[in-house]
Structures are given as C-alpha cells and as structure tokens.
Amino acid sequence: MPGAPVPAPPAEPAATPPGPTDRRSTLPSLTGLRFVAAFIVLISHTGYLFYMGAAPEDNHSDYLFVAGSVGLTFFFVLSGFILTWVARDSDTRRRFWRRRLVKIFPNHLVTLAATVVLMITGGVAVTVSNTLPSVFLLQSWIPSQEVIQGHGTNSPSWSLTCELLFYLSFPFVLPLVRRIRDNRLWLWTGGVTLAVLTLPFVAQVLPDQPVMWWGGGMSWWEYWFVYHFPLSRMLEFVLGILVAQIVLKGRWIGMRTGWAALLAVAGYAVTTQLPDVFAWMSLTALPLALLIAAAATADVRGSRTGFGGRTMVWLGEISFALYMVHYLVLYYGPVRAVSPDHGMQTWTFLEALRDIGLTMAISLVLAWLLHRYVEEPAMRRWARPASVPPKPTAEQQRPADRVTVTK
Fold first, then answer.
1. Where are the beta strands (DSSP E) in 226-336?
2. Residue 60: Cβ within 10 Å count
3. Is the dihedral of CA 10, 11, 13, 15 positive or negative?
4. Residue 372 per-residue DSSP state
5. d(Cα 29, Cα 32) in Å, to the nearest integer?
6. What is the pTM of this model?
7. Across the 407 residues of the chain, what is the mean pLDDT of every consecutive 10-residue run?
8. How far apart are CA 156 and CA 325, in angstroms?
9. Are the C-beta atoms of 394 and 4 separated by less than 8 Å?
10. What does DSSP assign to residue 88?
C-alpha cells in the first residue's frame, strides 16, 4: 500500500475547461477509500462468521456476506485505474512485473506460513490441495471448494490470483486500450459493464452440483465462475483501465463523489435482493468506477473528499496487510470460527461486542506490523534493480507507485 502522499496540488480555477488530466497528481483520496473497502470486507467476514454462530438458522447474514463482494469489486476496479494512472512509456515490462510481484508475494508468503502454523496448532488438516496451489497463487484457477475455501485456511488470498493475472496482462492490455479513440471510451466502458452483468446468465449452463457449503440455491460451479474465476474478474480490472483513460483524456462527466457513492450503495441494495448467483454479480462495478474517477478528479483539483486526510491515508496504507491478516484473526482469534462447534455457540450482545471489537483491534495491529516490517522493507529492498537507486524519501515518492489493490 502507498506511503504518505505528496500534498495535493492547488485547486484549479472553476472556469478551467475540460482537458487531459495531469497524471503526476497524487491521489490521497483513493488511498483512504482503499481502507473503506478493506473495512467493509472486514465487517462482512466478521459479521457473517459471528452471525453464523449466534443465529445460524437466520439467513439475514447474507446481507453481510454480500457486502464483502462490493469491497472486492472496488479493489479490482481500482487496481486497473491506479496502474493506468501511473503508467509511463519509459517503464519496462520487467521492472513493472518486478514491482508488482515484490508488492504481493512477501505479505502473501508470510501470512501463508502463519496459516500453516495456525492450522497445525489448531488441529486443522494441512493437505496438498489446501496449501500448495496457494503458494504460487494458482488457487482461483482450480474450481475446488477445498482449494479456494478450505476450512481454516487464509481463503481471501484467492483474490491475489486475480491480481497476479492483472499484473501479468497489464503491459499488453494498456496499449490496446490506448488505441481506442477518445470519443469511444464511454462506449467501451458500457460494453465491459454489460459483459460483467451477463456473467451470471452464462453461469446458468454450468453444472448445478455440488451446492455451496454455506447454503443458498446456487451451485459451486456457478459461484466459482462469477466470483472466483480470474478471467471473469478481469473485466472489472479492464473497467478501471477504461475509466482512468476517460479521466486522463479529459472525457470525465464531472460527477461528484457523493453521487457516485450513492449509486454504489444503491447497486449494493439491489444486489441483496437478487436470487442465488445473481447476488454475486458485480452490479456495483460501474458505480464504483465512477466513485474512483470522481475522487481522483477531486484530488487533482485540490478539493476535499473526506478520504484524503492523514489518518485515512495511513489506514489505506495498511489496508492490503489488513486484508491479508483479518481472516486468520477471525478463525483463530476471539471469535474462534475455526472451532467445529462454532455454529452451535451463542453470544450475548455484550459478548459479541467484545469479541468483534477485539477481532478488529487485533487485525489492525497485525496489519500495521505486517506493513511496517514486511511490506515496506521488501519494497525498499527488491522493488527496483540495484542499478536503479530508490528515491530518497517517502515524501518524494508517488503513493500510487506503491499500490497493490486486493479484497
């Protein structure tokens, strides 16, 4: 995650006509928004796993679980947007891939090692299927519940499989998007959005067995195709690239951050009412892309969004680490979701408040430690070849250059 941003540039006069945007501008609001998305995922998983123990017969927990998909969609769209924003013609594929791999693998391997230790001490079977594909971030390519969502594993790491695909393909996809004529960027954005919305319909041709272990009327194959399959999620990444090009080329429609946020909330509200696999459709993909573009535009103009303050930026910096550690805390921490009798436990309101509060506090502390002692040192040591000296201070380094966006 990025470090402290360079102060935002002064506001432009209101009368400035639309035109190509200066990509050198920093985007602190997007750093802050990353924490909002990560916190939604944390609330979603914490609330869902607690709810399953407190009231397993009540399916209202689906509202919490689906909320996490909104945060994940935000990360995937933002990943495409940020990488496009900071892309330079002088960069090479090898250097780009090096930075991206160094960004995700140290945190991933450290949390994977911690997962294996916790599984052993917690009495969870360590098998080839629930560990080996994860080492190489291949798990989402394998349509197996045990591989992707094995009990006691750090299952959210599956999204890094998608991010790895995004990073490997970006140097080839961006030139294609740049060839699109400016006046057709919105048309392509609409086309990709439509493709995202058709995924649940395509999934209907897949086998209807086995069904999801946590309930619902959809099969595992449908859920995997819409939610886990990297090529399906690639559409959201491309959507982020297109919207970034729209802003950079001066084709932004001028929507305010608040209106875009309301659209995203409305998309989530509609999604919660959809049946089966349609509830996992990325209905919020376009509204979230608009929110990202609106926040970026506000930062360029020097306007305040409420997300670019010092505290929000710091929280955004540790959001990747938070995403990587929170599920382990849920499984092996105060909630003890890994326990076989978790679904038979009952909590009072005060007990729930205590356990959820502790879970969040422990997750934040561990996220800071992972960011401070693994992520940052790895980036300083290996993100650039020895022949390319690092920039002297964090204040001089664009935050977007150090972004890794995951659920």
1. none
2. 9
3. positive
4. I
5. 5
6. 0.87
7. 38 40 75 95 81 53 78 96 95 95 97 97 94 97 94 95 98 98 97 97 92 75 96 98 97 95 94 88 94 96 91 96 96 85 69 86 98 97 73 47 40
8. 9
9. yes
10. -
